[in-house]
Specification:
The protein is built from 10 helices and 11 strands. It has 281 residues and is of the alpha/beta class. The structure holds NADPH dihydro-nicotinamide-adenine-dinucleotide phosphate.
């Protein structure tokens, strides 16, 4: 079997166009314009690229973009004060702090300080708790974007075996909750998991977000499985690869996401969806 490509770029463009049309309609009716505040602390080059892409997406959607760049020496107290300002700013409906933040910053405290109604990254314990109790409000963008992609395949998720490789708060855990809420039977794997190859080989849906280039081998993939690769790894030659060995996995999977052009664009499209939802709630 040769897999069909699950093209996140095209799906994301479709979503972003729907959002642009909706914002335009709301503006013409005299309603508020969604505002997204993206805070970048420091000069991490990858974060600068992610923030720039979010800014462009925001502008193209017709949102007000409030980008805030703070020096890498910004203190915890200064960052908390900035979040407090944005929490009370009526023109701002979504607030995200680009991660990772410099080491002296306590990430958990920063995330928890964001008003949960403006937490468009969906990382606040309140929003994670909503997802964990099957009452999602603002769901974490990458896993929710993956669900949108899975729905595009037309495959019924209910009853399938899903294996999520990676158990971080921003990818693996919310991904597993999303799949559980759709009644997949979910296994979460992490660095202490024994015999990962066997676990993956039993999966009808495999979602991998680990951060190790081509760690999941094509030979592990069950014939006909859906393979979603969240990983983004830059090789020494400058090219980008995922966490799955794409060329061999595509020979066995029914659907597979490419890297780049798979999950990445969906994360930004879902961020815009969350901001729209926060603005017009
Ligand atoms: P983290 O480093 O926070 O988490 C990595 C996870 O992988 C951990 O749960 C870790 O386990 C697990 N892990 C590490 N080694 C192994 C192993 N040998 N076997 C099984 N599991 C292992 O990374 P993130 O979740 O933030 O990101 C993961 C990847 O996804 C990265 O490549 C990142 O760039 C990408 N990413 C892509 C996004 C997109 O939009 N496409 C968005 C966010 C991330 P343990 O918990 O035990 O340490």
């Amino acid at each position: 079997m040769v897999a069909k490509i699950l093209n996140g770029k095209d799906i994301a463009l479709e979503i972003r166009e729907q959002i642009r049309v909706e914002v335009d309609k709301q503006k013409k009716m005299g309603n508020i314009v969604p505002g997204l505040a993206v805070i970048l602390v420091g000069e991490d080059p990858a974060s600068q690229v992610y923030v720039r892409n979010k800014k462009i997406a925001c502008q193209k959607a017709g949102f007000n973009d409030v980008s805030i760049v703070l020096s890498k020496t910004t203190t915890q107290a200064e960052l908390l004060a900035k979040i407090d300002d944005l929490n009370t700013d009526a023109s701002v409906h979504g607030i995200i702090v680009q991660l990772p933040v410099p080491e002296h910053i306590n990430t958990a405290e920063i995330i928890e300080r964001i008003d949960s109604e403006k937490d468009v990254d969906g990382f606040h314990p309140y929003n994670m708790g909503r997802l964990a109790t099957s009452l999602p409000k603002l769901a974490p963008c990458t896993p929710h974007g993956v669900m949108t992609m899975l729905d595009k395949t037309g495959v019924t998720i209910r009853g399938l075996n899903a294996v999520v490789v990676g158990a971080s708060n921003i990818v693996g855990v919310p991904m597993a909750l999303e799949l559980l809420n759709r009644r997949a039977t979910v296994t979460i794997c992490h660095s202490a998991t024994k015999d990962l190859a066997k676990k993956v080989s039993e999966a009808d849906i495999v979602v991998v977000g680990v951060g190790i280039a081509e760690m999941v081998k094509g030979a592990w993939i069950k014939e006909g499985a859906i393979v979603i690769d969240v990983g983004i790894n830059r090789l020494e030659n400058g090219s980008l690869v995922g966490d799955v060995e794409f060329d061999t996995a595509k020979e066995r999977a029914s659907w597979i996401t490419p890297v780049p052009g798979g999950v990445g664009p969906m994360t930004i499209a879902t961020l815009l969806q969350n901001t729209l939802q926060a603005a017009y709630k």
